[in-house]
Amino acid sequence: MLRDLDTLIASMQPELQPGVYVFASLPHDAVTSGAGIVATFREREGLTVVMEGRAAQAAGIVPLFRAAWITLTVHSDLNAVGLTAAFAHALGEAGISCNVMAAAYHDHIFVPADEGERAVDVLRELQRSAGKLSASSKP
Question: What top-level class would CATH report for the domain 5-136?
Fold first, then answer.
């Protein structure tokens, strides 16, 4: 598990997952065990689900946001400081919105569905820049 910010950024290895994913809001009592569910989060207003776009369409679920899913394959520590800010800033500078979920092993970034490839390019450039900085600071 990594905590050092420069090392995390230089090692993040963004990976675009295949397909389109959607964010949707369901009633609290909705059954969420089913194909296509990636994540859930219970809010006061309802149950937010992130799921495969095709599964949502088949179930008649109206998407709030259609997304491409990028996984940072580096095993980041949940106590690491600054990684989310760094990649969110880089994506923001490129005009790409992002929604982030941290899981036990990796960070997952959801960007507008049509921006997935460009977002990966931005993240890889951030990674290259951090790698150069890290290499130049070594004696």
Answer: alpha beta
Q: What are phi and psi of 103, to 5 degrees?
A: -115, -175
Residue the block writes with tokens 């675009």: 16
Angstrom distance (rounded) from CA 139 to CA 135: 9
CB within 8 Å of 6: residues ≥ 6 apart:
130, 133, 134, 137
Q: What is the pLDDT of residues 88-124, one digit of tens each?
A: 999 999 999 999 999 999 999 999 999 999 999 999 9
What pLDDT does residue 46 have?
A: 94
Which of 15-29, 35-49, 122-136 bottoms out in mean pLDDT, i.e. has the lowest? 122-136
**CA 25/CA 6 separation, integer angstroms:** 36
Following DSSP, what letter does each residue of 59-116 receive, concatenated? TTPPPSEEEEEEEE-S-B-TT--SHHHHHHHHHHHTT---EEEE-SS-EEEEEEGGGH
Backbone φ/ψ region at 19: left (φ over 0), alpha (ψ -120 to 50), beta: left
Q: With beta carbons less than 8 A apart as the criterion, state whether 67 and 100 touch.
A: no
Q: Show me where the domains of the chain are located.
A: 5-136
